[in-house]
Amino acid sequence: MPGDSSIKAGVHREKFEVAPVSSIWLPRLVEIDSSWNPASWSVKLFERELINPASRVRGLFRGNTLVGYLCAHVVMDEAHIVSLGIDPVWRRQGGGNELLRDFLRLCRLENVLHVTLEVRVSNQAAQALYAQAGFKAAGIRKHYYSDNGEDAITMRYTVEMP
Ligand SMILES: CC(C)(COP(=O)(O)OP(=O)(O)OC[C@H]1O[C@@H](n2cnc3c(N)ncnc32)[C@H](O)[C@@H]1OP(=O)(O)O)[C@@H](O)C(=O)NCCC(=O)NCCS
Fold first, then answer.
1. What are the domain boundaries of the chain?
2. Looking at domain 15-158, what is its CATH homologous superfamily?
3. How confident is the model over 101-138, as pLDDT tens digits?
4. What does the pLDDT average to over 62-86?
5. CA 124–ligand 1 middle distance (angstroms)
6. Closest CA to 61 of 27, 29, 104, 108
């Protein structure tokens, strides 16, 4: 199409892909997590999540690179999102949304009925992401975060079954 610079330059828009994360990505998981998490997780902690049967660790990939992850625990018909992060370079490109929607699809397949999470009251970006996906605020946990004593908003999502 005339005037479309991406075609002129021969570049085609790659998409994100979501897949389970294997242990080769442990250093990269730690790198992404430490870019935003004041209580960042160690390799050992992520390693434990990768082998925990209750854990679902989903990776967001762009080409051959891991650019984000979501970690959640599933017990019976309840799931809890324990961590979600996108490499700062790759934010605001729909990746967080894609990871979250992938996980909600997985919940449907696993007959999970409710998904919960905590988010910092100051974290407007994450709250907007969750609200857009259908999460509702369900309460406040006072002084939930030990690094600065910040309160957490608990959010809850009810999975719609077909
Ligand atoms: C929160 C986070 C995961 C969002 O990931 P992302 O890939 O940038 O998000 P997306 O591009 O998919 O955006 C989806 C929606 O989230 C919201 N959003 C994302 N970033 C936002 C920002 N900086 N400000 C306001 N809203 C934002 C918007 O509603 C956006 O929809 P829109 O693009 O139609 O406006 C990312 O900012 C991040 O990794 N933050 C640090 C880690 C973190 O806070 N994790 C959550 C812990 S509970």
1. 15-158
2. Gcn5-related N-acetyltransferase (GNAT) (3.40.630.30)
3. 999 999 999 999 999 999 999 999 999 999 999 999 99
4. 97
5. 8
6. 29
